[in-house]
């Protein structure tokens, strides 16, 4: 059966999943567009609910799961990247309770507090996955992991990462329970260069929002750390700062 109407109930549902964070969380499912992204979701054992395929565009192998054929006009309606690749999957979300994570002895964890922009969160996920970070914790976060823009900007790296959502106090309790070295990014005279910090042991680096930095909650909770710079600018884009930190962690572990 070919779905050709925008008024089809399944098309209405997927459109709402794409646009409404609260509906997506309540439904406990999310949308993945693109062949590479769907392949990664399946590879990392995300459970598919159904797929929507546009035969005029899709060039890959049909998924071994429930799928529906849709017209090109309908596909372009539900595709947030236009007419790309012709496949959209709907998957069940996974549990993101921090209590389920048991870090290894030399784990490095990145913590971003209050992150709001899905694109930033996706870029951060991409760096964390690329440089072997053990987990990303979103503390007091406002962005949804399963927002389509997070998945798109992370190029599906979300699926291969340990990602957790927690309040600040829960995050601090977790770090103390597992004896993490806590490195904060509060700007003051006590801050030391990042390459002087030890990432060969359990380490957590905390970043705040771009406009206000870390909240007062984290004052005095860790060792202040900075990225040395030689130019006239005294700060970096959040995702760039995280990427440099992730690389430093990997560099030290490979020495």
Automatic annotation (TrEMBL):
Residues 8-89 form the MRM3-like substrate binding domain. The keyword Nucleotidyltransferase does not apply. It comes from the Bacteria. Pfam families: MRM3-like_sub_bind, SpoU_methylase. Belongs to the class IV-like SAM-binding methyltransferase superfamily. RNA methyltransferase TrmH family. GO terms for biological process: methylation; RNA processing. Keywords: Methyltransferase, Transferase. This is rRNA methyltransferase. GO terms for molecular function: RNA binding; RNA methyltransferase activity. Residues 108-247 form the tRNA/rRNA methyltransferase SpoU type domain. SUPFAM superfamilies: alpha/beta knot, L30e-like.
């Amino acid at each position: 059966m070919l779905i050709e109407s925008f008024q089809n109930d399944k098309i209405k549902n997927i459109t709402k999943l794409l646009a409404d964070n609260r509906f997506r969380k309540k439904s406990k499912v999310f949308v993945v567009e693109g062949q590479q992204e769907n392949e990664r979701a399946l590879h990392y054992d995300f459970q598919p609910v159904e797929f929507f395929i546009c035969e005029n565009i899709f060039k890959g192998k049909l998924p071994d799961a429930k799928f529906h054929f849709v017209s090109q006009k309908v596909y372009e309606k539900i595709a947030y990247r236009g007419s790309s690749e012709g496949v959209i999957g709907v998957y069940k979300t996974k549990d993101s309770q921090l209590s389920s994570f048991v870090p290894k002895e030399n784990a490095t964890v990145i913590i971003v507090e209050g992150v709001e922009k899905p694109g930033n969160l996706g870029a951060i996920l991409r760096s964390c996955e690329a440089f072997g970070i053990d987990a990303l914790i979103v503390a007091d976060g406002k962005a949804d992991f399963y927002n389509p823009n997070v998945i798109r900007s992370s190029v599906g790296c979300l699926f291969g990462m340990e990602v957790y959502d927690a309040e600040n106090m829960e995050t601090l309790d977790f770090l103390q329970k597992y004896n993490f070295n806590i490195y904060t990014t509060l700007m003051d005279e006590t801050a030391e260069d990042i390459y002087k910090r030890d990432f060969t042991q359990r380490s957590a680096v905390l970043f705040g929002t771009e406009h206000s930095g870390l909240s007062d909650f984290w004052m005095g909770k860790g060792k202040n750390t900075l990225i040395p710079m030689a130019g006239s600018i005294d700060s970096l884009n959040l995702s760039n700062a995280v990427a440099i930190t992730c690389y430093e962690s990997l560099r030290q572990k490979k020495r």
